[in-house]
Write a structure and sequence with these properties.
Layout: H1 5-10, H2 20-23, H3 28-31, H4 48-58, H5 66-94, H6 100-128, H7 132-158, H8 162-166, E1 170-172, E2 179-181, H9 186-193, H10 196-326, H11 329-353
Antiparallel strand pairs: 1-2
Helix pairs in contact: 5-10, 6-7, 6-9, 10-11
Protein name: RNA-binding protein Luc7-like 1 isoform X2
Region (Disordered): 215-354
InterPro entries: Luc7-rel
């Protein structure tokens, strides 16, 4: 479908309405135009300016339009092959049944006819291009193939009755699904194999094979890139997990260090508190011990003073008894009075000391 100026300004080559096969110069509507199998105008947009835009853009980035073009050509060739099989089936139903041996001989004649037609078409093309020497060499090969064909036709004629041999035997072309006759002359064969229809189908089939190869290579490259990105992503995830693990380990280590420091601090505080309590208990014990010792010493001094006073008193009484016996009663009373006075003074003195 051709575009007007207004449409051309709006549509880009990436638009879905644009024929991707046309951008790759392999649309069957273009290739088979003017033949007996002319497909008419393509339902999608064809424009040479868009093809030029695509060729420029494809040099900078991969647009992968080959996949769309490959699907288009595969669909077209599949339909052509289906027509070929139907034509073969109709021929088998209408033509007289022959034996396998005769069929093989007829097939050999058809193959030689095809070879002659291809060589003649190539010779004509080289002659049109001005390459006369190469064209002459190919014509010499054509003569050799013609001799082989004559021998094959003799073998085929001798293998069946004359009435059956005169019947026209047809064959379906595997490339373009056209009918070929067993007894076609060289001109008819050259016109077929050098014709636009047959060459167009060859171009389409070759382009399809090329697209399949290109798509396979690009898909393999994409798969490798995807696999490489996946490996890089997995490697980054592993590194991230390792980094996270090291971070968690550092956090755990710092947490353990903090717990250890708190534990040591708590232990020191407990030890300090224990030592403080021990010192307090020791101080209280020492204080009680000193108090007890002072009380014990005070009690000892009291007991010692009392014992000393009792012993001196007993000694004085004994001395007094002894003096009373020695002196008279008068002296005894005087001494007794003096002794009592002295005794009271001594007792008061001792009491004061105590």
């Amino acid at each position: 479908m051709q575009m007007g100026d207004e449409t051309r300004q709006r549509v880009k080559f990436t638009d879905d309405r644009v024929c991707k096969s046309h951008l790759l110069d392999c649309c069957p509507h273009d290739i088979l135009a003017g033949t007996r199998m002319d497909l008419g105008e393509c339902t999608k947009i064809h424009d040479l300016a868009l093809r030029a835009d695509y060729e420029i853009a494809s040099k900078e980035r991969d647009l992968f339009f080959e996949l769309d073009a490959m699907d288009h050509l595969e669909s077209f060739i599949a339909e052509c092959d289906r027509r070929t099989e139907l034509a073969k089936k109709r021929l088998a139903e209408t033509q007289e049944e022959i034996s396998a041996e005769v069929s093989a001989k007829a097939e050999k004649v058809h193959e030689l006819n095809e070879e002659i037609g291809k060589l003649l078409a190539k010779a004509e093309q080289l002659g049109a291009e001005g390459n006369v020497d190469e064209s002459q060499k190919i014509l010499m090969e054509v003569e050799k193939v013609r001799a082989k064909k004559k021998e094959a036709e003799e073998e085929y004629r001798n293998s069946m009755p004359a009435s059956s041999f005169q019947q026209q035997k047809l064959r379906v072309c595997e490339v373009c699904s056209a009918y070929l006759g067993l007894h076609d002359n060289d001109r008819r064969l050259a016109d077929h194999f050098g014709g636009k229809l047959h060459l167009g189908f060859i171009q389409i089939r070759e382009k399809l094979d090329q697209l399949r190869k290109t798509v396979a290579e690009k898909q393999e490259k994409r798969n490798q890139d995807r696999l490489r990105r996946r490996e890089e992503r997995e490697r980054e995830e592993r590194l991230s997990r390792r980094s996270g693990s090291r971070t968690r380990d550092r956090r755990r280590s710092r947490s353990r260090d903090r717990r250890r420091r708190r534990s040591r601090s708590t232990s020191r505080e407990r030890r300090k508190s224990s030592r403080s309590r021990s010192r307090d208990r020791h101080r209280r014990h020492r204080s009680r011990s000193r108090s007890h010792s002072r009380g014990h010493r005070r009690a000892s001094r009291d007991r010692s003073s009392k014992y000393k006073f009792s012993r001196e008193r007993a000694s004085r009484e004994e001395s007094w008894e002894r003096g009373r016996n020695e002196r008279g009663s008068t002296d005894w009373r005087l001494e007794s009075a003096n002794g009592k006075a002295a005794s009271r003074r001594s007792e008061e003195k001792e009491a004061g000391e105590i």
